[in-house]
Specification:
The complex is a heterodimer of chains A (434) and B (429). With 434 residues, chain A is of the alpha/beta class. Chain A has helices spanning 19-27, 74-90, 121-128, 142-147, 165-174, 189-202, 220-228, 268-273, 302-315, 333-347, 350-353, 360-363, 371-383, and strands at 4-13, 16-17, 33-35, 48-50, 108-113, 180-181, 208-216, 256-267, 280-289, 324-326, 385-386, 408-409, 414-420, 425-432. Chain B is built from 14 helices and 16 strands.
Chain lengths: 434, 429
């Protein structure tokens, strides 16, 4: 079975565009959670979130591909930018940059997790207004819409919003023709996508893969949906940086963010032979499912624990060997309690001693973009630094974790990143120093 | 590496919702396509579709709906199909290690709450500035939208509901790779079993895009047939007068098991899954690769994975959408892979009768491959009356055909260049 290493990292997060910008702001303890600026959020109880700093998508695609950026929803843009970042980091020359790539595209897979992509409301508004009902101006006249209104939408409208378009644009831009997949398991998408890509290389279906995920839930529909579910902190509009408090006794709800985190995985010998910069080896992956409720995690954390324990077993490692954990740490008290129970089951006494970096405090919840957390775990291992837990002060339910408000230096050989989704999917990844 | 077999199947389709009844209708060349009634599509350029009929009631499968009462339309299909497959497999949760039972679906997103969604948009639209007033939008949206209905649109919801239904706690994933999704899901589920990360996997998919915006999206892409006047003849795969696909909806589910697990419990083994190939065209988001490069690679990879030669394949359940582009390209790709044998191999598209179930299509079509092997009969491609020089293979035109088939291939190709191929074989021990 092939060994698999990480040779490229691409990150777009509320802390910065590019993995370097993200990492520096993260270890500086900065926050990416701010008042929403992309749209007028005054009609929402929660008016904060983690928005990615401004970028121009045209700067991240080949000139010949700029026209296609018109059919990219925000989620797609985030994935495309992160992919550019990952390729530039990896030393792999794709057709986006050269006529003579230094890899065989047929052996390069792509698995980019995605969420439910929200349509741009203004675009629909402009079209729908031409088909208002005569009796009720706030109702769409389907007859008029079918006859004429729908022609106001660009012919390619649907393709902006299909979740697999994140991967499709990336495969086209970089000419990747190997196994391509799109995992759509909400917050667990990225980790599952990385795990699945890992398996394709292990079993020899590919020798390279770009994997992770991207999502923008910080849209009006995303904010609305999460508000309806009561998951957001609505009391921190004036102090957004304090809103997300993972594993804290004052955890009062999460905040949404947007972002993309992608890894380039490479078969070990290939990476070694080309003299690639090797960040870490991906040594363990496991997935599991709660069978409890759709909207609440199993309070026992049973299946979440199973994912972590099985990933460690897959890696041939024990809990005592874990040097840093980037957990889900959502900042919703009931969820964090369930996660703590799961961590204790999976790690035993190491749950209290292994350093924990709950980075959603600084980025918000990136949903399918949580590949940022997996990538952060790899960067922590690579740099020998444990990112801070800026908002974890009083232990939730008295459960003590090894957290610090400041970044700490440490020798890190093993890093774990684990997630669970709204819907009960769990996944864990284990990285080890080569 | 573990061998992987199918031990249970279920579906909810536009032609019914039990395995044997739908199979009989498919062999009889019937059609599930009719005027759209889920919404008033009278003025839409396409006003026909293949809807799951009103006699489908989830209660008939689950009894009390319990935690599934608020499930979306696609999830309701998934639940009914899964309940059938689970029952047919004879699996008993009480006797299983449910940590070793997983689920891999290729399900689509749930349907929009269209009235509330469009109502909020119209309320927020400000003509003067041609922008959305988000405060007005939010006021209406919060008043009219419902938490559960909104959550149920997330594509992982069918998966989450199936976990509640069955108690499965093993690896659980959903992939949404457009029209290739459930084929890919079953292929990846097989890989999980081969590797030994689970003993049992529920694989398949569910989808419904028959709602105003879904239909609008496909109409704008000019992907749909506009032959509204004669719905059962509208879907014409491989016919010279084909003019697009007919949108369908539904779910297909199979129970996959390691051979060892199935034999140990004395399960009725329906077929063995022996090959899987998955590739990307990396060509255009709108078009397939004109030479079928990715499709060729997917079929070739599946054959290699199965250690089979093209001549071993007796039947191909084609993607066969009835669009000008797909059917010509797919024919070309089959010729490229199969060479001489392409002319001897029977090919058919059940989309001629059932329409295109999008993410769910592949699972339903794989079930047809298993049934074809079981019963030694091939479902026809209906409405194939006008020869197209581009499509000159044996498509089992208009009439089911008796044929002994031991190995069948199922193709699914998705928007954006996703290509997935599965191969199933008669189980012979």
């Amino acid at each position: 079975m092939a060994r698999v290493v990480v040779t490229g990292i691409g990150i777009v997060s509320p802390l910065g565009v590019g993995s370097r910008a993200h990492w520096e702001a993260l270890i500086d303890g900065k926050t990416g959670v701010r008042r929403v600026a992309a749209f007028d959020a005054s009609g929402f109880a929660c008016q904060i979130g983690g928005e990615v700093p401004a970028f121009k998508i045209g700067d991240f695609v080949p000139k010949s591909y700029r026209k296609a950026t018109k059919v990219m929803a925000r989620d797609i843009e985030l994935a495309v930018v992160a992919a550019d970042d990952a390729f530039k980091d990896s030393g792999l020359q794709s057709q986006a940059y050269t006529q003579t790539p230094n890899f065989d595209g047929r052996r390069f897979g792509c698995n980019i997790g995605a969420g439910l992509v929200s349509a741009e409301l203004a675009e629909l508004g402009a079209a729908m207004t031409t088909a208002r009902s005569a009796n009720d101006p706030n109702r769409l006249d389907l007859g008029q819409w079918g006859k004429d209104g729908m022609t106001q939408l660009t012919p390619l409208w649907l393709l902006k919003y299909l979740p697999n378009m994140l991967a499709c644009h990336v495969t086209i831009i970089h000419q990747l023709k190997g196994p391509s997949n799109t995992i759509t398991c909400a917050d667990a998408s990225s980790h599952l996508a990385i795990g699945e890509a890992f398996r394709t290389i292990q079993r020899g279906n590919a020798e390279l893969a770009i994997c992770g995920g991207a999502e923008c839930k910080l849209s009006p529909m995303g904010l609305l949906r999460q508000t309806l579910l009561g998951r957001l902190n609505v009391s921190c509009n004036d102090d957004p940086g304090r809103a997300v408090r993972p594993f804290d006794a004052d955890a009062a709800g999460t905040a949404l963010g947007e972002g993309a985190g992608l890894l380039i995985l490479e078969e070990y010998d290939r990476a070694k032979n080309r003299g690639a910069k090797i960040y870490a080896e991906l040594v363990g992956f496991a997935a599991s499912q709660d069978s409890y409720q759709v909207t609440q995690p199993d309070p026992s954390g049973r299946s979440y624990a199973k994912a972590i324990a099985n990933a460690l077993a897959d890696a041939g490692l024990t809990a005592a060997e874990v040097d840093v954990i980037v957990p889900n740490g959502l900042g919703i008290a009931s969820h964090d309690r369930a996660e703590l129970a799961g961590l204790q089951t999976a790690l035993g006494s190491a749950a209290a001693t292994a350093p924990v970096s709950p980075i959603k405090a600084q980025t918000g919840s990136l949903a399918a973009g949580s590949g940022v957390e997996a990538a952060t775990a790899v960067l922590a291992l690579h740099h020998g630094k444990i990112p801070p837990a800026i908002n974890t002060r009083k232990p939730l339910g008295g459960v003590k974790l090894n957290v610090s408000p400041q970044t700490r230096d440490a020798k890190i050989d093993v890093a774990v990143s684990s997630v669970y989704s709204l819907g009960g999917q769990n996944a864990a990844l284990v990285f080890r120093k080569v | 590496m573990n061998r992987v077999v199918i031990t249970g199947m279920g579906w909810v389709t536009p032609m019914g919702h039990n395995i044997e009844g739908v199979w009989k209708r498919l062999l009889g060349g019937e059609s599930g396509i009719a005027r759209t009634t889920l919404f008033d599509a009278a003025t839409f350029p396409t006003c026909i579709s293949a809807q799951v009929k009103e006699d489908y009631r989830l209660e008939d499968f689950l009894g009390d709906l319990g935690p599934h009462a608020g499930a979306g339309r696609n999830t309701r299909f998934a639940l009914g199909a899964c309940a059938q497959a689970w029952k047919a497999s004879g699996l008993d949760a009480a006797k299983l290690d449910m940590d070793r039972v997983g689920i891999y679906l290729g399900s689509g997103e749930g349907s929009l709450d269209f009235d509330a969604y469009s109502g909020a948009i119209l309320s927020g639209w400000t003509a003067q500035s041609a922008t959305m007033d988000m405060t007005r939008w939010a006021a209406v949206a919060f008043e009219r939208m419902n938490a559960v209905r909104e959550l149920e649109q997330e594509p992982n919801m069918p998966l989450s509901h199936l976990a509640l239904l069955t108690g499965a706690r093993g690896p659980a994933l959903n992939c949404l790779t457009a029209c290739a999704a459930s084929t890919q899901a079953i292929g990846e589920a097989m890989e999980i079993l081969r590797r030994g990360d689970a003993d049992v996997m529920i694989g398949g998919g569910a989808h419904s895009m028959i709602h105003p915006l879904g239909v609008t999206g496909f109409i704008r892409l000019t992907a749909l047939s506009t032959a509204n006047e004669d719905p059962p003849r509208a879907s014409r795969p491989f016919d010279a007068k084909r003019g697009g696909f007919v949108l369908g909806e539904g779910a297909g589910m199979v129970i996959l098991e390691t051979l060892q697990h199935a034999q140990k419990r004395g399960a009725n083994i329906l077929a063995e899954v022996v090959g899987y190939g998955s590739t990307a065209d990396a060509f255009r988001i709108t078009d397939q690769h004109p030479e079928g490069e990715g499709a060729i690679a997917a079929m070739t990879e599946a054959l290699a994975d199965a250690h089979l030669e093209p001549k071993d394949i007796g039947y191909i359940n084609a993607h066969g959408t009835g669009t000008r582009e797909n059917d010509g390209n797919e024919t070309g790709a089959i010729k490229a892979v199969f060479g001489e044998h392409a002319r001897k191999c029977a090919i058919s598209s059940i989309k001629s009768m059932m329409g295109h179930l999008i993410a769910a299509a592949g699972a339903v079509e794989l079930i047809c491959c298993v049934l074809a092997i079981r019963d030694n009969i091939l479902p026809p491609t209906m409405n194939l009356q006008n020869a197209d020089p581009e499509c000159d293979l044996d498509y089992v035109p208009n009439k089911a055909r008796r044929a002994k088939v031991d190995v069948a291939m199922s193709n699914s190709f998705g928007f954006g260049g996703q290509n997935d191929t599965l191969i199933v074989r008669r189980f012979v021990g």
